[in-house]
Write a structure and sequence with these properties.
The complex is a heterodimer of chains A (about 180) and B (about 425). Chain A has about 180 residues and is of the alpha/beta class. Helix content of chain A is about 25%, strand content about 25%. In chain A, strand 3 and strand 4 form a beta hairpin. In chain B, about 50% of the residues lie in helices and about 15% in strands. Chain B contains 17 helices and nine strands. In chain B, a hairpin with a 2-residue loop joins strand 3 and strand 4. Classes of the chains: A alpha/beta (about 180), B alpha+beta (about 425).
Amino acid sequence: MEPLEIVNRLKAKYLNEISVVSQFRDQVFVSVNRDRILDICRYLHDDPEMYMDYLADLCGVDYPGRQYRFEVVYNLFSMKHRHRILLKALIPEKDPAIDSVVSVWSGANWHEREACDMYGITFNGHPDLRRILMPEDWDGYPLRKDYPLKGQEDHEYKGLEEARDLHTHDSEWTIT
Amino acid sequence: MPCTQRKLTTGILMNEMKHSPNNNGSRLATKEFTLNMGPQHPATHGVLRLVLDLDGETIVKCTPYVGYLHRGVEKLSENRNYLQILPLTDRLDYISSMSNNIGYCVAVEKLFGIELPERTEYIRTIVSELSRIANHLLWLATHALDIGAMTVFLYCFREREKILDLFERLCGARLTVSYPRIGGLKNDADARWLEDVLAFTDEFPGRVGQYETLINKNRIWLRRTKGVGVISAEDAINWGLSGPTLRGSGVPYDVRTVTQYGMYHKVKWKICTGKNGDIYDRYRVRMDEFHQSNSIIRQCIEQISEGPIMADAPKFTLPPKDRVLSDMEHLIHHFVLITKGPQTAPEGELYVPTEVPKGELGFFFVSDGTGKPYRMRIRSPSFVHVAALPRLCEGELLADIIANIGSIDIVLGECDR
C-alpha cells in the first residue's frame, strides 16, 4: 500500500488524532496526538491490510521552544506488504509522558528505555523503565538540546561508589 | 547447605534461600543462584554484563546491562557537520566498519539527493560484501571458539587476514577504514587490486568447505546448536530482529532488497533463510551468505567499467584536485568544505536502512537546513539483538547462553553507540 493511502485510512478512523502529514523523498510522516497512540499502534499492527508487524525503530526528538517540545518517532514496517510509515507522537514539555507500546511490539522495550534515558520521556505501562545507556544515578537527559555537549559544568560524575548504593541488585547480594 | 557453599567460586553470588529446606527431612535443599557474567568476560564479545537468576543450571531470568561503551555518538553528531561524522561511524561496529561507513554515506546521499556514478556503486558493493565475509569469518571463529571448536578459529582468521590486507592496500587502513565519502570514494580501486580480489574469491568457496568439514557433522557442534535458542518467525519479527538472526527463523527479509543502494539489483543473488530459528539455522544462514557474497563480488568485478568515482555535487562532495588547481569556483567549494563543512542541506526527515553484516543499520536524520544534522538517530542491529537475548535464553541451560550470545552476532560498540 502507498504511504499516503495508509494515511487516508488512518484519517478515516482517527481523524481527530492526526494533526500534520509531511512527506520527504518517498517517506511519509504522520503527527498524531499522544493520547491514543496505543490504539493507533494496535490498529496498525492488527489490521490485516496494514499489518505493521515490524517496529524498525523508535526514538525521541527534542524541539525546544515548540508547543510540543518532544516527539517520539515510531518507524513502522510491514514484512508482509513491504510498506513503511513513520508516526510522530507530540509530547508537551510540562508532562513528558506517553503510553508504552511494548504490549504491541516487544522490541519497543529497549528503544523506549533509551528514549526515557536520553530525553526524560516517561512511558506509561512500560515493564522495566530504567536508564539503559547512562549510569543509573546520572543527572539530566543528555540528548536534550539544552544539555551541554561537554556535560554540565560544576558537575563531576562520581561514578562507581555512588552507583553501588543505588544498584537495587547489589543490595540483595552477599558476596561470600 | 555447606556443600553448595563450598562450591561457590569467584563470580557466583548467592541469593537468599528461596525454598527453605526441611532440615530433618529427606528432600535436598534447592537454592536460586544469581550469577553475574561480565562485563569482562571473553564470551560476551565485548563489555556486556548479564545478571542471571539460576535454578540449578536453568536460567530463570536474564537481565542484560549495557552502556559500558557509550560514547554519545548521537550527541556528538548533532555538533558536527556531515563530513565529520563519517569517522565516528567506523567506531560503531568496528568489525565491519566498511559497511557502517557505506550505510552512513547512503543515508546522507539520499538526504542530499546525490546520484552516484556507476563505478562507485560497484566498488562499494564489492567492499561491503568483502566486509560481510570478514565479519562472518570473525563471527564463525569466535562463535566456534566459545562452544569449544578451537581449530575453526585459526582457519577463519587466515582468510580474514587476507581481506584486511586487501582493505589496507585499497585505503591504507585495516579496521577503521573511512573509505567511502559522501558522494563517492576516497580513491579509486586499481585493476591489480580487483584482480587480487578475484583471486581471493576463486579460492574462498573451497575454504568455506574446509570449515564445514570441521563442524558440520561434528556431534558436539550439532548438540550445542540444534534446537537451542529457538525463536519463531513471528516472535523474531515482533522483537525487531534483523539480518541473519531474523532470516534464521525463515523470514526472507533483507534490507538490500528494500533500500535501493549498491548494485544488488544488477547481480544475481538470493536471500538465504533458515527454517527452525535455532542456533544451527542461524549458523547455516551465515555459511550460505559466504557463497552469496562471494558470487556478488565476482559478478561485480565482471561488470565493473571505468568511470568517475565522485558524484558531481560541489556543495557536498570534494571536487577533483586538478579542477581545484585550475578553476576558481571549485577552489572556493573545496575551501569551504574543508574549513567549514557543508553549509546547507535539504530540510526534512529521512530514515534510511542498509543491510550490514549484523542486520539492519538505520540512520534517521532530522535536517533543519544547516550543515549539521539536527538529530541523527542510529538504529543499530546489536542493540535490538541484545534486547531479545532474555527471550532467547530464559528457560534454557546456563551453558547455552554462550552459544546464544554467539549466534545473535553482537558488537557492543554498536549497541552502546
